[in-house]
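Still learning. Any example?
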Amino acid sequence: MTIQRRDFSKGLAAAALTGRPAFAAAPRRANTLYAATGSVMAWRSLDTMTGASGKVSAITLPSPIQYAWPGPDGRFLYVATSDAPGGSVGGGSIHRLVALKIGRGGALSFHGEPAVLRQRPVHMSVDPSGRYALCAYNAPANLSVHMIRPDGTVGEMVVQGETLDLGIYAHQIRMMPGGRSVVLVTRGNDASAKKPEDPGALKVFDFNRGHLRNAQSIAVGGRGGLGYGPRHVDFHPHLPLAYVAVERQNQLHTHRILGAHLAPEPERILSTTDQPPQDAKSATTLVGAIHVHPRGHALYVSNRASSTVEVDGRKVFAGGDNSIAVFALHPRTGLPTLVQRIDPRGFHIRSFAISPDGRMLAAASMVDMQLREGGMTPAGLSLFRILPDGTLAFLRKIDTPVGQEAQFWTAILPVPA
């Protein structure tokens, strides 16, 4: 089910979202739309007012791209790659952290030698100072901190002097606002026929010049992390709030930030989908990425589904919710209210991005999908205009068929001045 904007006009008014000027007054700047499929990072120019895009160019990296993060000055893009199968324990042999220089028109080129990593890096980010790259590894859970040299190349790994509490199945690593702590989001795993459920948690570490110390282990729900499967976190741009996308329970949790740490229990828990919770065997919908609008008046979470069933010898879509859930954020408290779910016209939104000017959202569907009624929907980049109240209006979809590969990551970045 898709929730339309008109169905929530009362809720939007209550949230008082129009108290700030729209981004329409922001100066225009050239932007580049990036998308990663397998080992290939492609880019094209993007007009964030009209959705018009330019010619596609690409660069091939050492192994399939898992995640990427721009440096704070916009001159470099740091990319984690691995040839390990997604979700595997071990596997693969080419795990790298790559620095790319962003040049004229957003073009990418290798910048220094890639760093060799120990296992599959499922996520990476860069601290606001641009001095450190942080990598998260999923199975077994692990992390690493790498120096970034003044010239933007990847430097040595920082050796940690303390045994860190790393949880089970790490999925994201982020620097907390203020730069004094790091959060590692560990998802855990659903129970299977062969083993019981693994608990999830938020692992918070104090950070000092690349060195980490255990600070908090947060397992919401009072069951030691059972029934709690967080995936990603994002932060309000000016209020002390962290928003957690909880993958295995299809929820959005809001935590208050207390200094450099997090409140152990969320202030608000909301569902991201209208589909009821399901057990591990029948689950078809999972939460994906989460991003707060740069203005701080709205928040977006992807619901993703791509399970298949065999019908007449064809593997077709099994059902589930593929949508972007839009939450209004109260201007004073920052607490979210669901105001919209909108169809991205694709399957399994693992990654989506908001343009720096706040005008556009691009959602990357990960896979091509055969439909029960016949035909195939290709993967693609679905472009949405972000309206002044934060809700989305579908603009167009750029089809990007992937075949046996997967479209894992996307971003909209400004062209360097």
Helices lie at 9-15.
